[in-house]
């Protein structure tokens, strides 16, 4: 694992074709456009109006997106749909070797599928911006961009793509996809699971909230802003998540047992 603060290569204007133009892709696009990059997008849903307001060419047909001259194809689909979306891309329509980058919140799964489906001449960069529309709404400074350079031959394109994040002040963290998934199962997945549990309990602000409880209500609210596809993807496609869910349950049982023991002690 290494944190880098500067890439020597000069950045350049990139032509970026986005596959999956949901809320996270829309959030990333605003910054990329401000930086002067040229964006195109294709998605299952028709985003042509939104894209035309943002200055992005929208293609209903992904064939046309792949046929355009792209430096980077940026995969922003849900974790659950990734395999189906990638396997249905008409990759023979690519005009030239292209960098494929993804932003999925799990990393071994996209790395494996990208390596399986892409032609050998395409480069692969796996990334996970550890922030979203809420935490990154006032800028990306000091927010972490995790990445693994899985298969990179065109250093200039890869560096220019990473510069998008670096130039916003992101903390650039190079880490293997496996290491990421291990850590994310114990951190991000547990955070989302607790947020979902709090939502099932229907916790609400009260007139006597402590600061700690205010944070729990915020956690519930921020978790529920993400789709259930995103949350379940963190579990289904991270091989370390099942064990962490077990650990959470064991820890819950232990705490409950300690409380019951104490109550029994007091009553005797
Ligand atoms: N939200 C965040 O804060 C955040 C942060 C870091 C990384 N990410 C990652 O970014 C990606 C997108 O996240 P998100 O927040 O926008 O929500 P999401 O629910 O994880 O993904 C929504 C995207 O997936 C597409 N999609 C879903 N099911 C599909 C299917 N069956 N066929 C084709 N496309 C399908 C949607 O297309 P349509 O909109 O066209 O229907 C949309 O582009 C995810 O992989 C997520 O893990 C998100």
Structure keywords:
268 residues, 47% helix, single chain, binds NADP nicotinamide-adenine-dinucleotide phosphate, 16% strand, nine-stranded mixed sheet, alpha/beta, 11 helices, Rossmann fold
Please characterize this protein's 3D structure.
With about 270 residues, the protein is an alpha/beta fold. It has two domains: about 5-175, Rossmann fold (3-Layer(aba) Sandwich), CATH 3.40.50.720; about 185-250, no CATH class. It contains eleven helices and nine strands. It has helices at about 25-35, 50-55, 60-65, 80-85, 110-115, 155-165, 175-185, 190-200, 210-225, 230-235, 240-265; strands spanning about 1-5, 15-20, 40, 55-60, 70-75, 100, 125-130, 145-150, 170-175. Strands 1-9-8-7-6-5-2-3-4 form a nine-stranded mixed beta sheet, with helices on both faces. Helix 7 (about 175-185) runs parallel beside helix 8 (about 190-200) and helix 8 (about 190-200) packs across helix 9. The longest helix is centred in the last third of the chain and has 27 residues, at about 240-265. The model has no long low-confidence stretch (mean pLDDT about 95). NADP nicotinamide-adenine-dinucleotide phosphate binds near residues 45 and 105.
Structure described in brief:
A nine-stranded mixed beta sheet has the order 1-9-8-7-6-5-2-3-4, with helices on both faces. The chain is of the alpha/beta class. It folds into two domains: 7-175, NAD(P)-binding Rossmann-like Domain (Rossmann fold); 187-252, no CATH class.
Order of helices and strands: EEHEHEHEHEHEEHEHHHHH
Radius of gyration: 21 Å
Sequence stretches where pLDDT stays below 50 over 5 or more residues: none
Question: What is the CA-CA span between the terminal residues?
Answer: 54 Å
Q: Approximately how much beta-strand content do the residues carry?
A: 15-25%
Figure out the total of helices: 11
Mean pLDDT: 96
Which fold name corresponds to the CATH topology of the largest domain? Answer: Rossmann fold
Query: Which small-molecule ligands are present, each listed once?
Result: NADP nicotinamide-adenine-dinucleotide phosphate
> What is the number of independent domains?
2
Strand order of the largest sheet: 1-9-8-7-6-5-2-3-4
CATH architecture annotation of the largest domain: 3-Layer(aba) Sandwich
Please identify the oligomeric state: single chain
Helical residues, percent: 40-55%
CATH level 1 name of the largest domain: Alpha Beta
Sketch the major β-sheet. 9 strands, mixed
| Annotation, overall tally of beta strands | 9
Given the helix and strand composition, which structural class is it? Answer: alpha/beta
Dominant shape: elongated
CATH superfamily of the largest domain: NAD(P)-binding Rossmann-like Domain
